[in-house]
Structure prediction request, 127 residues.
Amino acid sequence: MPHFLLSAEAMFSAAHTLPGVDMCERMHGHNWRVRVTVRVEADALEDGMGVDFRTVEHVTRGAVAGFEHRYLNDLPDFAERRPTAETIAMVICERVAQALEVRAPTSRISEVELWEMPQYRVVYRPA
Prediction:
């Protein structure tokens, strides 16, 4: 089915530790970059637009706002799971999906890309 993919990005700075992972056992930080891509079916356009880019940007920024200048290991989202790039991407996806249900109900998350460094990126695609 024809569809559109729209993306917006946000950034945050945060620290974490990953016990048992060489060099990551010590507290260290990253300037994280996240890109959320949403899918809108072509037949769901309203006045030629699937969803406003600013809406995707706003919900993405909102999803990561609580991470800014924080030690991720201390946050409730990571009480039961380590703050790896993979789990951070999943948490962002969960938060954005919840916000989009209200703000842009015709859109669905296609993927969340998260960079912890310019050369290291993870892509999460929800089912």
User: Anything to note?
Assistant: The chain has two helices and five strands. Residues 85-103 form the longest helix (19 residues). The longest strand covers residues 3-16. Residues 3-19+29-124 form a domain with the Tetrahydropterin Synthase; Chain A fold (CATH 3.30.479.10).
